[in-house]
Design a protein that fits this description.
This protein is an alpha+beta fold. Helix content is 31%, strand content 27%.
Length: 183
Amino acid sequence: MQKYTICNIDESLQTMELAEKVLLDTFIGSGMWPDLDKKEAAETVDKSILAGICIGIKVDNQLIGWAGLRPMYKKTWELHPLAVLPQYQNKGYGRILIDEIVKTARQKGVIGIFAGSDDETGKTSLSEKEITEENIFEEIKNIRNNKKHPYEFYKKCGFIITGILPNANGPGKPDIFLWKDIR
């Protein structure tokens, strides 16, 4: 891992544009946010900055990733988004961002972090079956990662799967709900 610095993502135009570019470069083509466009990326950056906590990570003075945390409930906030440029993924930078978000969230009295992680491209076993009342808990318990879905990253960072929303993005395209206790 290269040396890095942590920074706040703020409302300066340059910082916002860099965060927008990281978001687009991370998710376009990954299938994880297939309909993301420049306007939505800009809105996501703006909402993240205004709503709560927004932290970036730089290598060689270049923004390579960032994470936003915004209120969802009084004591549980939502991690949205978490973006690390593809060439820096699987090197520990995402975990560093999570750790920094957790530290800052604790200072604000937050006790839990929620993350939703869509499976729009068949990357998990949850997309292979019709989810019903009879099988939902068994399918969650036996989830398999078929194509590098990020739910495993979240689990390595201490999140647990708390549920799913079947067909959230169309048939066989669930949203996986994760939560981390940060007390």
